[in-house]
Amino acid sequence: xxxxxxxxxxxxxxxxxxxxxxxxxxxxxxxxxxxxxxxxxxxxxxxxxxxxxxxxxxxxxxxxxxxxxxxxxxxxxxxxxxxxxxxxxxxxxxxxxxxxxxxxxxxxxxxxxxxxxxxxxxxxxxxxxxxxxxxxxxxxxxxxxxxxxxxxxxxxxxxxxxxxxxxxxxxxxxxxxxxxxxxxxxxxxxxxxxxxxxxxxxxxxxxxxxxxxxxxxxxxxxxxxxxxxxxxxxxxxxxxxx
Length: 242
Description:
By secondary structure, this protein is mostly helical. Helices cover 66% and strands 3% of the residues. A two-stranded antiparallel sheet has the order 1-2. A hairpin with a 5-residue loop joins strand 1 (72-75) and strand 2 (81-84). The longest helix is centred in the middle third of the chain and has 22 residues, at 107-128.
């Protein structure tokens, strides 16, 4: 033992990673670095085997792992192969849906999330909306006003909420809100009349603020709308929404 009494630091165990994982990591990093664009084909399996100096089994395993993660899609046929696709709103919404189902989140939790997130979506929509967003939001408001049956009005309301989230042009928020809105409307089907009786003026005012690029007004009005609507859904027939 040396002159000092300190115990030498222990060595860290060496972990050998599988070739499949190393290949998948390489491809994943290059996809995230945008070296391969969405819709672009990766090199063929034979070419990947040559470049990585590995086996066909390792390359196929890496491609299967990337496909399971939603980063590529395998196409068959003469022009087939591994096509790059980055995860987007659908994948995020599916993940959020699994979280909601897995943790059995109740309506209160979902409404709390909506009250926290949707005003931010409205604010960002006012800042980033496009002409196409404006056209879709106007059509959605008109659809709400024209709906006469409960089922049609509920669907119109949900469609408008999803459009606002997408108009934020923040894929994380949009994916979260799409899943959230879908689950809230499913959870309150027994109180469908409460959703159906919400006046279209709230939707019109928020839409106007988004069109005017008034982010402060869009956020404030959406907060009022979400709070009032949540109160109404928690206590059927006692809420009041303008």
